[in-house]
Write a structure and sequence with these properties.
This protein is mostly beta strands. It is built from 3 helices and 16 strands. The chain folds into 2 domains: 102 residues, Immunoglobulins (Immunoglobulin-like), CATH 2.60.40; 128 residues, Jelly Rolls (Sandwich), CATH 2.60.120. A hairpin with a 2-residue loop joins strand 13 and strand 14. The N and C termini lie far apart (59 Å). Keywords: Signal.
């Protein structure tokens, strides 16, 4: 009987909720960011560095430090990486400027370590980092499509990444899954073949750009409005007819990490 009562007492002790005094023994961290969508492709350098802001409660913390860690959930290696620290103000506030260099969907962890009889506390926030990515990372195939890099010309010009697409064929780029929102490319009739033909860049039923060109015509690029027609959920398909076209330097602004292996 005595053993039974002792066991019941132990269960009650384990199951009992924390008292307000016990709960107060842990630092409470609240964190957020000044901008959770960073565009590293901005030409003027703006919108490339968010501020990770917040507050720590639970005791006297003025002058103490909080520590920041980032995990890129778009990459295969999603281990948290230390990205810096910040001293807390007299009111427990922090403000850390962060300059990410790689695209991805990041979890940011803010940690106030234990001390002064208080247990450690932490909070999570998220930042989406977009950068231009060569569409070669997303190439999914196309009948007769070749890579005439630096040799396949349009009006005598060539690019470091080029796809020659023969008449009646198409090239597919599986960009879905990385929140891509803007596309850029150059396209024109291949000097090697010549003639006149038509091209069309689509995502499902949505047309990003289309037109007709002849040999010797200058290559064309999407306007700002056309480049923003890109959507995240569908692959990009480049179709041509009449003659062969060269697609040069295709890229898109995505949360795709290029410094590490991406999750596919």
């Amino acid at each position: 009987m005595r053993k039974t009562l002792a066991a019941l007492a132990t269960i009650a002790l384990v199951a009992a909720p924390m008292t307000s005094a016990e709960a107060a023994s842990k630092y409470r961290v609240s964190a957020g960011v000044s901008d959770n969508k960073l565009d590293l492709t901005s030409h003027d350098g703006s919108n490339r560095s968010p501020h990770i802001k917040g507050k720590v409660k639970g005791g006297k913390v003025a002058g103490k430090k909080v520590y920041f860690y980032a995990s890129n959930t778009s990459a295969r290696n999603q281990k948290y990486r230390y990205i810096g620290s910040d001293k807390l103000s007299s009111s427990g506030r922090f403000d850390k400027k962060w300059k990410p260099k790689d695209g991805g969907s990041y979890r940011i962890k803010v940690v106030k370590k234990s001390g002064n009889g208080k247990r450690a506390g932490q909070d999570l926030t998220r930042v989406y980092v977009f950068k231009f990515v060569n569409l070669a990372y997303f190439y999914a195939g196309g009948e007769g499509v070749t890579r005439p890099d630096k040799t396949g010309t349009v009006g005598g010009q060539y690019w470091s990444t080029g796809y020659e697409i023969p008449a009646g064929s198409s090239a597919t780029f599986a960009t879905q899954g990385f929140s891509c929102f803007r596309i850029n490319f150059k396209i024109g009739v291949a000097d090697r073949v010549g003639g006149t033909g038509s091209y069309r860049i689509t995502q499902g039923t949505r047309t990003i750009k289309e037109g007709t060109l002849s040999r010797g015509d200058r290559f064309v690029e999407p306007t700002k409005t056309e480049s923003k027609r890109m959507r995240a959920g569908q692959p990009v398909v480049v179709s041509v007819s009449g003659t062969s076209f060269v697609l040069g330097n295709p890229k898109a602004a995505c949360t795709y990490p290029t410094r590490t292996a991406a999750v596919r």
